[in-house]
Amino acid sequence: MGTVKRITKITKPKTGICMFAYNNKELDYTKLAIIAGLHIKENMKNNNIALICDAATEDYLNNAFNGKIVNHVFKYIIVKDVVYESNIRVHHDSPWHTFKIQFTNQNKHEIFDISPFEKTLLIDTDFLICNSEFDLMFETDVPLSLYNEALDLKLQMPLPNEQRLQVNGIDMWWSTVLYFDKSDFSKTFFDLWAHVRNNYDFYRFRYGFPGHLYRTDYAVSIAIHILNGMMDNDNLIQTLPGSFMRYMDQKDDIVEVQSKNELLLLSNDRKENWKDLLVKLTNESFHAMNKKAILRHADKFIETYL
Amino acid sequence: MDDRLRRALEFSNYRQTLHIHRENIKQRYDSQLQLIESGGIFYAKEKLISFISTLLDMGNESAIIIDSKNNPVDIKNLKEFKENLVEAYHQATNELYTEHQRLKKSRNIKAIIEWEQSKE
Predict the structure, then answer these.
(1) For chain A, N or C: smaller number of CB within 10 Å?
(2) Could you give the number of structural domains in chain B?
């Protein structure tokens, strides 16, 4: 693992949001982070943002974007290089296009040590915050909070392997949005997450889920199951505000950025892929899994929110 | 995209779209009902407001109240808490009412999603 090379600003606010961005040949995670950051700046009071990236991504960020935008969005840029480990993920961009690309997520559990904040909201760069709900978390004394339910644009449950790790397996928890403080309890959770990550093959066998991709959702689900004494969660881990996480599937698309916090989307039919349904989201945060859809509308997002 | 959009408009089911948008405004309503008090997250729903009113009527100035995540929370000033609940309730229901009225008048998909004619 790499080390923290540089922190650009020294003053330390107590609360803030962290995002990881490791660019690859297909996906510009820095642009996604800027768009997610602009949403945070627009909608949240606790809007100090730390971007964690490798040196190459930082160079790209500095060269590809206007310095004013970068400085406006990010209070900290923390360089954290990672050793390459093959973790190839299949992405969809609409039902008609797929691509495979390296997915760098193996150091997500290190956020406990990396985060410059006492209370941190960790979000994926494809999670767009469109209201102030998450500000509530910073006023609680809850040490750790995640979502354990997700609904798609049509308000349908996800596929079975994203409700439980396998049929009759343990509950799925989402690592897309994760709130934590720097308590001993949170540290125990992140240490356990690191342990699961370092012994992923064993836990994949033990918990019986398929595939070779390292999924942080699975790692946190196992860590939470272990923390609960190998039982279902009984309020030990509290869920984030709202009863579920809304998500846009990789086969869905964005039609239009209508205005701030108003998006028009296409929800693709899972069984009949040639059909789509128009859905409008207003003031609702959501996980936009089709990253290329966000990137196609990047200019409009930036223009709308700047 | 244009072709997909055209087909979406052709295939979209009015009732399904209306249902999703009704659910969306309900979610927005629930979201707006949330408020934080003494570290607890509460929903400003009728039952809680009535319960706090009862406690105040019986002369209580403070009480332990269970929040939406089942945590007991020490509310030191019930009167102020009730005022905050009622304010959140009004704000949420006003927006719900406005959106609900708009949806009632929306007789096609374009009206539900507020698609501008000029974009066709």
Answers:
(1) N
(2) 1
Residue B99, min C-alpha distance to chain A (Å): 11
DSSP code, position B1: -
Set of chain B residues whose Cβ sits within 8 Å of the Cβ of A280 = 21, 24, 112-114
What is the number of domains present in chain A?
1
The residue segments making up the domain with residue B110 are 2-119
Domain that holds residue A193: 4-245
Q: What is the ipTM of this complex?
A: 0.84
Q: What is the pTM of this model?
A: 0.91
Judge whether A195 lies within some domain. yes
- Considering only CA atoms, give the Rg of chain B: 20
Whether residue A140 and residue B16 make contact (CB cut-off 8 A), yes or no, is no
Residue A175 lies in a domain: yes
Residue A67: CATH number of its domain: 3.90.550
CB contact under 8 A, A242 and B1: no
